[in-house]
Write a structure and sequence with these properties.
The complex is a heterodimer of chains A (332) and B (300). Chain A is an alpha/beta fold. Chain A has 2 domains: 223 residues, Rossmann fold, CATH 3.40.50; 66 residues, Alpha-Beta Plaits, CATH 3.30.70.3400. Chain A contains 11 helices and 14 strands. Chain A has a 6-stranded mixed sheet, with helices on both faces. In chain A, strands 2-1-4-5 form a 4-stranded antiparallel sheet, covered by helices on one side. The longest helix of chain A has 16 residues. Chain A is elongated, with a radius of gyration of 24 Å. Chain B has 300 residues and is mainly alpha-helical. Helices cover 65% and strands 4% of the residues of chain B. Chain B has a two-stranded antiparallel sheet. In chain B, strands 3-4 form a two-stranded antiparallel ribbon. In chain B, β1 and β2 form a beta hairpin. Classes of the chains: A alpha/beta (332), B mainly alpha (300).
Amino acid sequence: MIEAAEQVDEVADPEIDSDLAIQIEGMVKCYGRTTAVDHLSMHVPRGSIYGFVGPNGAGKTTTIRTLATLQRPDSGTVLLDGLDVLAEPGRVRDRVGYMPDFFGVYDTLTVEEYLDFYGASYRIPTARRRRLIEELLQVVDLTEKHAQPVEVLSRGMKQRLGLARCLIHDPEVLLLDEPASGMDPRARIELREILRDLSNLNKTVIVSSHILPELAEMCTHIGVIQAGRIIAEGLVGDVIAALSHGPRLRIQMLVPDQLEIVARAIAEFTGSSADVLDERTLVAPFDGSDGDMAELLAALVARGAQVTSFALETGTLEDVFLQATERWEEET
Amino acid sequence: MIDARGILFNSVVGKELRTRMRGWRSIAVVSAYMLVLGVIAISFLVQEAGPTAGQSSQIGVQLFQALAGVQLFLILFVTPASTAGAISGERQRQTWDLLLVTRLSTFGIVWGKLVAGLAFNVLLIFASLPLFSLVFLFGGVAPNDIVNLYIVFLATVLLLGTVSLFISALTRRLAAAMIISNVVALILGVGITLLAVYLENWGTQQYLPGPTGMQAVPSPPLTPLAQLDPFVALASALPNGSNSSFLGGLGMVHHAFGILGTLHLWAVYAICAVLISAALLALTTYFARHTPRWLVRDAA
């Protein structure tokens, strides 16, 4: 289901959808004269991993902080697990695990003490905390570091410890703001695996990021935010299919002066025009079969084109994001 | 049922005490603090308790006064340093939001920060108790003088602690909170004293012609401002060696707060400190969660 964002000027008691872990209708948040979130509506199904994608300054952090009860919206309705974040912040905090984009740790505490402190702050009884901490350290693969001071952990390990902290009170919804920022590739892979584990535990996870290909791999749903509004939202595959231009052929030549030959051949063969990316590369829409591709390649070679690369590209999340935001900018 | 123990000693208190007392810094501060007071006491004894010393009880009173003054001065510096970073430090370290999303109430967090910050200062002033007991060797100081003095110390620690915590809630950077808190502590401690001296024209006994010649003009009653001055309160709690306060009659406040009878100035100061601290604690709790606009970074 793709929902184009429409401006909602007045939101009066929206109907609560029990299938949604998060339901935001017409949220507005301004900082002075700057509108950070502009009539944003967002719908996150229970048990989904929801990729929250948008450029810097689009309103991702403001939305996530509002869900975490750290700031109040100026208007609109923000429901988490059916609870209004303004009316029942305490109950919302019980259901939410929040990891900000940048967060510090208490360096002098050990890993175990760190989790124990947050466990106590969530009023988890001491005996249950000990068992819980052991289990969480296993989930985030930090069991061996349990007695180490937090300061000796690498950034990736601290990020995993932060995830364990988020999970200590067994929240139903996890809000992860740019969790992969600053991580090395290996740490990102580990994070992805942990998120999959969490999804298997039926947690709802919101992950904001601008590392788009990674989100495509780990998310079930996606919401694209631009200038404080959701401009596309739904299942990852549906959003990609609806917003992307479809498969495209990327062809690269050995020498620069053959673009015209290749473009003409493509036009004759597919009936569509090619876009020139640089002096040796072009892309063109292509929805033929593998046999059609082989024929086109043979035709190019027969016309003397020295092809060094000939590949079919399907729309990546990055493409979708760029296309969706460009289209939105053109329309507005 | 209200869990009093849970409110008084929540997880923040435990964590703060653990992190504060871990490492060399706290031990160094306690050692330096005791060293300063110890050197003052020994120097005083070497200078005053020689063969030309005066009356033993007078030495005891003077030692008591010297230690009390120095300790209050130390409190002015140490208390802001131990509480000013409570909230601003968490903001700077980017751990504050993580605390606010837990099930702890904002008051619980602020209270925990205050208790932990004050606990360290209380440790310092009680660590100096053995030094103060030296005066009993000389006499001239009654046990209740020490009690009165420690009430002034504790009230000052409470007042400066809540002032610094309030400043901490209004700042994002640790260094800024430290500097502002120390300046405010100096104004409270020394500035008010100087102002009170200026306003009251203290130290200059005035004489007017009377029927029996020149007569001393009785000192005017203290302005309410002086009731907030830790050094004036200290002076009212110090003995002068002749069963009287260091401030004499000025150390008493008549019709205190309009409804109470005559109280010692140090007692009025302690009550003022508790009332102001309660108000500041309420304000700190508000600003700790409702971050002032000038502190909000553009989080979009």
